[in-house]
Amino acid sequence: MKYYYLLIAFAFYACQNESSSEDKPLNILMIAVDDLRPTIGAYGDPLVKTPNIDHLASESVLFAKAFCSVPTCGASRASLLTSTRPTRYRFLTHKAISQEQVPDAIAINEYLKANGYHTISNGKIFHNLNDRAAGWDDNWRLQSDGNWRDYQIPENDSLDSGDQRGPAYERAEVHDTVYRDGKLMLKTIKDLEQLKDSGQPFFLATGFVKPHLPFNAPAKYWDLYDRSDFEPSRQEFWPANAPRKAFHNSGELRNYHGIPQEGFVSDSLSVTLQHGYHAAISYTDALIGHILEKLDELDLRKTTIIVLWGDHGWQLGEHGLWNKHCNFNTSLHAPLLISVPGGLQGVKTQSIAEFIDIYPTIVDLVGLKIPRTAEGKSLAPILENPDQGAENFAISKWQDGLTIRTQQYAYTEFRTDEDSLISRMLYDHNTDPEESDNIVDEPQYQSVIDSLSSIMMANRGKDYFTNWKMDSEEI
Q1: What pLDDT is attached to residue 235?
Q2: Interhelix angle for 180-195 vs 267-297, to 10°?
Q3: CATH number at residue 269
Q4: How far apart are CA 210 and CA 207, in angstroms?
Q5: Average pLDDT in the 413-439 region?
Q6: 15 given a catalytic annotation
Q7: How many Å separate Cα 360 from the centre of its chain?
Q8: Cα–Cα nearest to 388, from 376, 397, 377, 398
Q9: Is residue 290 flagged as an active site residue?
Q10: Catalytic: which of 94, 118, 127, 312?
Q11: For residue 14, what are the domain limits?
Q12: Does the pLDDT value for residue 2 go beyond 60?
């Protein structure tokens, strides 16, 4: 892959961006968490134990209404890290590779590196390790040795072979640093120590895998919860009048040992899966805590922007679904925290944020011009005035379904390759936040539907039905 556009960007911005002062530019620590829905204390979850993320929230602006572009990891990250929307044929699956599907876009790591930042990717940032690899000074991911599911109990590891995956969860009597995410934490801390006196601003991106399946976590994090804390999911509950197109068979979960291939999981298994998901979140929270402690210890917090996001939501049996991969709010809604030195702290904003806005926000905050390839908008005005909405909608896509979220409504259209309408969904979050009743056919909402559809079609992305390309002089 030729990175000529990176060289063009470097030459262009070397001329366009003046050195503002003697001050060293702000550093950036970006923390990505795979499959993390807003199951976080700071988001109002009364059960989960996330003291470290909650503390970060007390020093951040928390976006209560942030939405991913695509509810699957590879596509979500490709969209977020290049600030480009999915289209009919782009960013469809977890295997999406941004440098192939949007070769003329400048990814955030490439852009920051071209503007003098030392760039490090630890763990899972882009789904594909080789995606935009030239934009990292250090691109580190622990090798799996054929066991990327990282089982520590031999019996579980023995079940993981070929097409059969091991169990969907593991409670192991091990130290925090035995699992791969623990080793990722250690690598990130070592990097911070080395970056402290480097004299160069840094963009350090750290991507944790948990709570992605399987829900593997040290036993002490399982022990934070009682099994009685959890109730079986209402898996039999499908939204009234919802089209069949909106559902799936929870295939990702069904690949694991002990999961039935059809139908609902048992109440007992439902409780265990919820327990495991929460344990995995608390484990990741503890690892994040160690990184934040090191940032404070090194006196880097006052010069470092911190951005934490989960790449999409996740179903825990809601609507009869597990995993992500749908257009319901449980798949599209994800956490976003932004902490800026000297900025607002402990503020929760209801302003809508799209994940394609994260990249423009970061470069805006460090004083760089937002590349014209970016389709998102800077959220910096919201960080100064949380009541000021940069946008009044978010657009997300999954396969045939395109969804627009406003403050009140979630509206989805399922369309064919020929752009013909298949089916629709409309949910009023003021009265139906769990999306239990599809009201799209009720006559009183027709004007609302017409307006939402028009906005969504006008903003669904450049060249929605063709390959996306922008001439280098437009960068």
Answers
A1: 75
A2: 20
A3: 3.40.720.10
A4: 9
A5: 96
A6: no
A7: 16
A8: 377
A9: no
A10: 127
A11: 4-393
A12: no
